[in-house]
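subagent[fold] <- orchestrator: predict structure for attached chain, return tokens only, no commentary.
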Amino acid sequence: MHMHFKQILNSLTRKFTPIINPSFHRKDFVALDLSSSNEQLDIAILQDPEAHHNQLQKFLKVNKAKVAYGGYLEQRKLYDRSDYFQGTKPEDKRNIHLGIDLWCNAGTEVFTPLDGVVHSFQENTNFGDYGPTIILEHRFEDYSFHTLYGHLSIESLKRKAVGQRVQAGDLIAWLGEPEVNGCYAPHLHFQVIRDMEEKKGDYPGVSSRSQLEFYKENCPDPNLLLKIY
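subagent[fold] -> orchestrator:
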């Protein structure tokens, strides 16, 4: 009998598994709430990558942390700034986040938590999109699934080839500056995807309310792997 996919994911790592700068420990991470329900959130600052990054640095300093994390299934007003996320009907507007974000400095190293191969990679240049993106494919018994790394540097895509093997703990990328990462404060968008639906180099990282049930199943909580919280 096959284990449920979420149980498989959970079983692949035993403890906190960093996918950025390996010198960071669990105690260096602090939760960040970017949801629409956070009354203290200044949406204008979110729309200014430099101001947002400076605000994040202060937040990290106050919390004696190095990385701010969060966002799985978080509904965010942040996406209202870009036509790329708007639907024809309110329920089709995409504003529910399907990955986990790790906010820290541009240039921070990104590592794969698992053995796998490069599935695809490309620069996604829509306003508010991922910018440079890498997708890996992983196999475990009869399961195959994918991990997506978004908002990377241009340099991250160099010397990559489809089918290239990676091992758990390999350096695969660096975080990009706002000029290339979709116009955000520097961060990593990390997402688990069961079925890529034949897409390459890109996969929706934000869902509409109307599509959420499908995406919740196809993109389970990445923390099952990372064990940050």
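orchestrator: received. Logging for downstream: The chain has a mean pLDDT of 90. The chain has one domain: 5-226.
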